[in-house]
């Protein structure tokens, strides 16, 4: 891979990266627009610089796989409930990721949500432009890279973003091609999120409602990603290395794959499991659990099969104004386990990502004491 600084790429002093970024943004056609135009080479703005300090490699170990938690019967079977809590605890302390099956979200709803995302991104570009991100108060926004001008390189994907809670959009604010299913899917995820926060609370030794009562389930942002096929996938990423800056993420992914998690200094594939949803711990949950639960780095590889579709539901209030303050949960602290982080608001915490983009750095270090 090659460097992409402001002035030189491949020794070309005539390369103007800012000009290329602006032309891409002004087109409002996204990465899909490039693919539709028939490009055969990845534009320089997408080429990832080499990371000589990143020694982690994709593993081919077969003895190492993402934990799977079966939620069958946990609401009425004490044994199954206890087993699920224990599996969630182990996964949250070590992997920061797990997959859930028999979670109650109907398979038809999940399939239609993926189909709705495909329908939106495959609309005529002139129709999509009406939703393109700008300085508006619109709750549903379409963009390609939110951090286009701040990240080290652009990612090979397009995204639509919508704040669904605490104050969601009116149905009229959503594109008609995914309006009904986005509302239906969100209801299912909010229900599931409350269930997961109960399991996580118990895994911490707290009352089942603790995490919900302090506000972890208050906000929900839905990010729907569309990863077009890439002519040179070895040169870029669908999503570069990062950890999520929220409390919890529930991910719906299609069968193409490409998601990888950094575990014990190796990149591990998160294979699509039919009917499963992927759950991962966010930075804010690591902060309030005082490092008991781990928010781990993950990425998405570019692919030649695309388009890949995924829907990431972020439990966070994001940049919404709120005076609610979060810090390490006092019930988890002791003389031997003093607070490792200072208190913060969600808005203060997530502002880092908007200022720096997906640069591979978690803002957690900024809040350590």
Structure in words:
The protein has helices at 17-27, 30-36, 78-94, 107-121, 125-128, 179-203, 210-213, 283-288, 346-356; strands at residues 57-58, 68-70, 97-101, 140-143, 158-165, 220-227, 237-242, 248-253, 259-263, 266-269, 277-281, 298-301, 308-315. With 369 residues, the protein is of the alpha+beta class. It has a single domain (69-367), classed as B-lactam Antibiotic, Isopenicillin N Synthase, Chain (Jelly Rolls, Sandwich), CATH 2.60.120. The chain has an 8-stranded mixed β-sheet. It has a 5-stranded mixed β-sheet with strand order 1-10-9-12-7, with no helix packed on it. It is globular and about 60 Å long. It starts with 16 loop residues before the first helix and ends in a 13-residue tail after the last helix.
Summarize the structure.
With 369 residues, the protein is α+β, with helices and mostly antiparallel strands. It has nine helices and 13 strands.
Q: What is the CA-atom radius of gyration, in angstroms? A: 20 Å
Mean pLDDT, to the nearest integer, reads 92
Query: How do the strands of the widest beta sheet line up side by side?
Result: 2-3-11-8-13-6-5-4
Give the CATH H-level superfamily: B-lactam Antibiotic, Isopenicillin N Synthase, Chain
- The total count of strands amounts to 13
Order of helices and strands: HHEEHEHHEEHHEEEEEEHEEH
Biggest β-sheet strands, sense, barrel: 8 strands, mixed
